Amino acid sequence: MQIPWFSNSKDALLQSGRPFVKMHGLRNDFVIVDGREQPYHPSTKEIIHICDRHEGVGADELLIVEPPKNPIAYAFVRIINPDGREVEACGNATRCIGWLLLKECNQKTIKIETLGGIMTCALVGEKQVSVEMGKIKTHWQDIPISEEMDTLHLNIGTGPLNDPVGMNIGNPHAVFFVEDVDAIDLPKYGKTLQTHPLFPQEANIGVAQLINPETLKLSVWERPGTLTTACGTGACVAVAAAHRRGLTQKNRMTVIMPAGSVEIELKEQNIAVMTGPVEICYTGYLV
Length: 287
What we know:
The protein is of the alpha+beta class. It has 2 domains: 4-133 and 276-286, Diaminopimelate Epimerase, Chain A, domain 1; 135-273, Diaminopimelate Epimerase, Chain A, domain 1, CATH 3.10.310.10. It is 18% helix and 40% strand. The chain is built from 5 helices and 19 strands. It has helices at 10-16, 44-51, 91-105, 186-194, 232-244; strands at 18-25, 28-34, 61-66, 75-80, 86-87, 109-114, 117-125, 128-135, 157-158, 161-162, 165-168, 172-177, 204-212, 215-222, 226-228, 252-257, 260-267, 271-277, 279-286. It has a 17-stranded mixed sheet that branches. A two-stranded antiparallel sheet has the order 9-10. The radius of gyration is 18 Å and the shape is globular. The mean pLDDT is 93.
């Protein structure tokens, strides 16, 4: 099935501008552009403008679909933050683009390539997508952190947040466990922890509360410096962190975030699979 708003003929570009679709996964929203037929390389200034919620379309990230570099993948997806920095992975973004491309090729599963690796997407409901997010890494050099340290107990903290678990699932994370997520003023502490010298590439900061052995409540402060309503990679590593700390033995957990919940399954070799909803907001043209 051809997605009509992904028509990137030269005539369409000249007449109307660059087609895009806006989607969200649990209110984590994205502007998606197809750059397969007509390459798209916006400047940092253009990316900032597109993602600006007052002057542009408004989005948490810009996603650009390109031809795959690895022949086993259906497409390569560039994931770009509102500050113009390209990042390795985003779970909610992968669900959204996965749904679009699954509809386009009329398949049940496809592989999508990102800077963080190749992810397998599957349609499991009308607007429910499962994504195999890849292997969660725990070695200090893989996160990375700036010095050798036990990643199960990173020696950093501020205010009520201390002793996080460090991991990487295509992007770096630090997960703090607390008794009450709602009592934590994450914007107050998030930026300091995100840019801590221990993280040479900065880190996403998660605050997790174990509700029961099958349920976590989570809030995430994301690079480049925003409190997000949902974070797919953050949900994956929060479940893995709970396992590493011995807080649960369940391989399937529900992770509740401000905008809703996702299901996380931990498979063999520390591979995480995330399942959650997607929605189309609208389509248009970048002019």
